[in-house]
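Cross-posting from the chemistry board since nobody answered there.

I work mostly on the small-molecule side, so proteins are not my area. We synthesized zinc ion and want a rough idea of how it might sit in this target. Sequence and SMILES are below. Is it possible to get a predicted 3D structure of the two together?
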Amino acid sequence: MSTVSIGPGDDVEAWCTRCRMNLYHRVIALVGNSVRTVHCLTCGGDHKYHPPKNVKASEEKVIQAKTAKVGKSSKPNNRATNKAIGEWTVFMNEMPPGTIPRSYRVSDAYGSREYIEHPVFGTGRVIDIVGAEKIQVIFKEGRKVLICNKSMKPAGNLG
Ligand SMILES: [Zn+2]
């Protein structure tokens, strides 16, 4: 047991009936060991001693800032396309630095693993020689069979 001796002139925390707050009061009079009358150091009023009330600490309302949801990222929902892009990306990554894809021409001959630039499909790579005049090329959007090595002869020689 801790006995704190309080005497007149001491400051104690008490409930101020005027300020309606727990404030320090100067002890004016005691009865026995009990504080009888106090003097509010805040409002200067003398009143009967009231024990400090268990007032809840000022409620700090924490405003939870809701994190703004990031807009849904638009992803292609075509899995086949995604697979093709992945495959194409691999081939593109294998392209030696400084490689300039050759512009695609029907009349030109292309070799396997050659990089070409198609006016519509973009950059691609020859992955297979299908025939004497056909090559399979992988582009970003998928594999395409292109005509190549086609001698520009007048119509009539179509296979
Ligand atoms: Zn007061």
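Reply from a structural biologist on the board:
Welcome over. Reading the output above for you: Residues 79-93 form the longest helix (15 residues). The longest strand covers residues 21-31. Happy to explain the token format if needed.
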